[in-house]
Amino acid sequence: MGRILVTGAAGFIGSHLVDRLLELGHEVTGLDCFTDYYSRDLKQRNLDRALSHGRFRFFEGDLLRSNLDEIVGGVDKVAHLAGEPGVRASWGERFPVYLERNVQATQRLLEATSRVRPKQFVLASSSSVYGADNGGPAAEDDPRRPASPYGLSKLAAEELVGLYEREHAVPATVLRYFTVYGPRQRPEMALSRFISLAGRGELVEVFGDGTQSREMTYISDVVDATVAALEAKPEGAARVYNVGGGTRTTVVELVELVGEMMGERVEIRHAPPAHGDVRSTWADLERAARELGYRPRVSLEEGVEEQVRWALAECARRRTPSIV
Ligand code: NAD
Ligand code: UGA
Q: For labeling, which of 21, 53, 107, 251 is most exposed (least CB within 10 Å)?
């Protein structure tokens, strides 16, 4: 058992990781500043369970401004999940926000962490570092040519982690998550939006013709991989792993699946293709299986059903017709 810092603890993935680490008996420190990317209410709700736990302490603070020495002091391991997500919002005026929250924040955290000699630093990176697909599964050493400013900012964060590993001996692991879904999914992501709109009987918006495909990864599988990376023995250079769900779907098929799970016919309205949206994502999971023992366990059907169930329960609890 150890003391683990989770940044982005109030977010979708971070809050699930916190819950699992507490179940496993760890002391967990959470940090989050409740950015305005989506509603603070949803993030606070994500933390409900953890906040009543005796082994959890929470700092509300920004990685860009907080006294990080105080926060990382006494920490053995760091899971760095805080960041500005979202591929499509990263163009234009918002790019500086991506640089601050994905690049500068990571550098500040690595500086402070290097002073406490941690046993492991895990970075939540993204499939978006690969860019346009090559028609087959992407392996970790394949070329990285991001197709969006977001992907570029995540690639820069990966490079920083490698730099601090080499020059400041911070043992590190980079995880490239592929489109994560499940309860608490961010409200602007495809599946959240489709469930919400279908629940209100409205048209769902599909960018482009909807034949673009995604490797989708259920949240508990992502947490499994992240825990395995936190537990892995660091060996020399920073290791990089794809974390995928082992199943792929087109966007149109995803809409159909939502309809099936909700028992409704869901109508589509097509919108122009989104800039920076890659045609397909596909993870080669061989390295993660061999070295982390990672195997995705939740099928797309089971996972979507679970997210629909959660979303409907949240609506009922809040007495609103929509999750977001
Ligand atoms: P999220 O927005 O739900 O969580 C991120 C959290 O980080 C938010 O609660 C936000 O308030 C916090 N945060 C951001 N900047 C901060 C700062 N400077 N200081 C303190 N807190 C800050 O997003 P998510 O979907 O849970 O993603 C978590 C991480 O995983 C991100 O780094 C994202 O890039 C990465 N990722 C996500 C996916 C996915 O499909 N959700 C896929 C690949 C990679
Ligand atoms: C997701 C996350 O949002 C990123 O944070 C993450 O880094 C990335 O996965 C990753 O794998 O690395 P994305 O694949 O764009 O990005 O996820 P969604 O927002 O769920 O979109 C999936 C697909 O549905 C995209 O092709 C998108 O254009 C489409 N979409 C989305 C729609 O057609 N309509 C919508 O309303 C929303």
A: 53
Q: Is 181 part of the annotated catalytic residue set? A: no
CA of 98 to the centre of ligand 1 (A): 11
User: Which residue among 194, 204, 251 has the greatest number of ligand 2 atoms within 8 angstroms of its CB, and so is best to mutate?
Assistant: 251
How many domains is the chain built from?
1
Which domain, by its residues, includes 74?
3-178+218-245+282-296
Is 322 exposed, middle or buried (CB count within 10 Å of its CB: 0-12, 13-18, 19+)?
middle
Ligand that lies nearest to the alpha carbon of residue 210, given by its number in the listed order: 2
* Residue of 116, 119, 90, 120 whose CA lies nearest to 102: 90
How far apart are the C-alpha atoms of 94 and 221, rounded to whole Å?
A: 31
Task: Please check whether residue 125 lies inside any domain of the structure.
Answer: yes
Q: How many CB atoms lie within 10 A of CB 249?
A: 19
The pLDDT assigned to 51 comes to: 97
* Position 265 in a domain: no
Is 88 a member of any domain?
A: yes
Higher pLDDT, 13 or 132: 13
- The answer to whether position 103 is within a domain reads yes
CATH of the domain at 60: 3.40.50.720
